[in-house]
Each structure stands twice: as structure tokens, then as C-alpha cells.
Design brief:
alpha+beta; Ribosomal Protein L22, Chain A; three-stranded antiparallel beta sheet; 8 helices; 11 strands; 25% strand
């Protein structure tokens, strides 16, 4: 599955967007290109988001945060037919955001299913995932060698995952590590329970291109049937994964 290049991306986002109940939309944002529009993004953010942006020490981090949050607001506003600047968020106990009910009113005219979304960014790439009535989580990671992958795997990966990773040729180990990490992160983000779920309590496949990557869940083995976990394109030098509640949905990838 490749991302669809849309002409005139800004107008595409601004126009009303349809999101069917059997669809999941995944948007990819090039943060290095978006950073140049910081002044525009700042106008879309809420006061607390602007304050958060101002606390970043480095201008690049501030610009990337502002771009990601503003594009999230713009896409959400198009899905629910609301002014992006007026949207407000609730945050669950573990920090997962959702739109307040008032902002869903107009969107319900097109779909009675609640709009769900999740965001991840790493390096110069951000992924934003959206669905109706389906919990979901997305994760993207830039592949880098500034961490001890073996030590992290021994601490956080399940025994099954450690064995699979150890079977990889040395040249593929780093990529396999990040492939495993993004799949595990996408699953716990979809669950919305953060690290209260031990990463060793479930198994994911590390096989490249796997569209059925959740292999086992503990202590409830039936939980595995509730979720669809798959690899998605993160771009050159990245690994990415998407976890969505339920089956029978179609993925649509878009570039913004």
C-alpha cells in the first residue's frame, strides 16, 4: 500500500472529507516541508497548544509540533465539518486524546460512529490515522543506531520476539528491532492504556510486510481476535505500524 499523492494538498484537506465506516485513513506529513508554514500553523492552534510549542528549546521541535497539531486540527475539522480552530480535546487517563462531543455534532450528520484518531511522529515524518467507531493506534520510528537494540529487546520484547529477532542476519537486526517496536507501540496506543500493558504480555510478528502481525495476547488469549495489526509505509529510513479495532476495513493512504 503506497501513499496517494494528492494535487493541491492544502485545498484537499480544507474541503469536506468523507470517511466511511469501513475505512481507515492514514495521512503522512513531511515535517521538514511543513515547518516553513509555522506562522500559518500557529494561527490554527489553541492557546494551550501555542504555549506548549513555545516551551520547546529548539525551533525545529517547535515548528514540527505546531505543524503536526495544526494539520491534525485541519483534517479533523474537515471530517466533522467544523472550524479547525474551534475544536477541543478530551484526554483519557493515559493521555490518549479524543474530540469533545460538541465537535462531533455536525460530523454525526454524515456518520453516527464516533471519530477516532491517533498521531505519531519521528524524525521528519508524522503519521495521522483516522477511523469511525474503531479504536486505533499508529507508530512511526526513524531507524537509527543510537540505542542498544539488543539490551532494549531483552528488557521489553517477549521471549518469542527475542528468538525471532536473534534469527535475523546481523545486517537486518536493526530494522527488525524497529519493526517490532513500532508494532508493539501501535498496539498499546490502540488500547489506550499506555505502558500499564507490559510489552512482554503480547507477541507480534517481525516479518516484513506482515498484515496480520498480532500473534498472541496474555493473559486473555481472545484479545488477539479483536485487533488488526499491520505494517504500513513510513518512508525511506523509517518503520511504521497501524493497529485497528476489528476486521474488514480498508486502508486509504494520503499525503498532506
Amino acid at each position: 500500500m503506497n501513499f496517494k499523492n494528492v494535487s493541491s494538498a492544502a485545498s484537499e484537506i480544507a474541503a469536506p472529507l468523507d470517511l466511511a465506516e469501513n475505512e481507515v485513513h492514514l495521512w503522512r506529513l513531511d515535517l521538514s516541508a511543513a515547518a516553513a508554514s509555522e506562522e500559518r500553523w500557529q494561527q490554527i492552534l489553541s492557546a494551550d497548544e501555542r504555549a506548549r510549542a513555545a516551551r520547546f528549546r529548539f525551533s525545529r521541535d517547535r515548528q514540527f509540533f505546531a505543524a503536526t497539531r495544526a494539520v491534525l486540527r485541519t483534517i479533523l475539522g474537515s471530517y466533522v465539518a467544523s472550524d479547525p480552530k474551534s475544536l477541543a480535546f478530551n484526554y483519557a487517563e493515559k493521555g490518549k486524546p479524543s474530540l469533545v462531543e460538541n465537535d462531533l455534532a455536525q460530523g454525526h450528520a454524515r456518520s453516527r460512529q464516533r471519530l477516532e484518531f491517533n498521531v505519531s511522529h519521528s524524525g521528519t515524518t508524522a503519521l495521522l490515522a483516522f477511523a469511525r467507531g474503531r479504536a486505533l493506534g499508529v507508530d512511526v520510528e526513524q531507524i537509527r543506531d543510537d540505542r542498544d537494540a539488543e539490551a532494549v529487546a531483552q528488557r521489553f520484547f517477549s521471549q518469542r520476539e527475542q528468538i525471532e529477532l536473534a534469527s535475523f542476519p546481523a545486517s537486518d537486526t536493526l530494522r527488525g528491532f524497529f519493526r517490532c517496536w513500532t508494532r508493539k507501540e501501535a498496539f498499546i496506543k490502540a488500547r489506550g492504556e499506555g505502558l500499564s500493558i507490559p510489552l512482554s504480555d503480547f507477541d507480534v510478528s517481525i516479518k516484513a510486510g506482515d498484515e496480520n502481525a498480532l500473534l498472541a495476547t496474555r493473559p486473555d488469549p481472545a484479545e488477539v481476535a479483536r485487533w488488526s495489526l499491520r505494517e504500513v509505509p513510513g518512508g525511506d529510513g523509517y518503520e511504521a505500524a497501524l493497529c485497528v479495532e476489528g476486521r474488514g476495513w480498508n486502508l486509504k493512504c494520503l499525503v498532506c
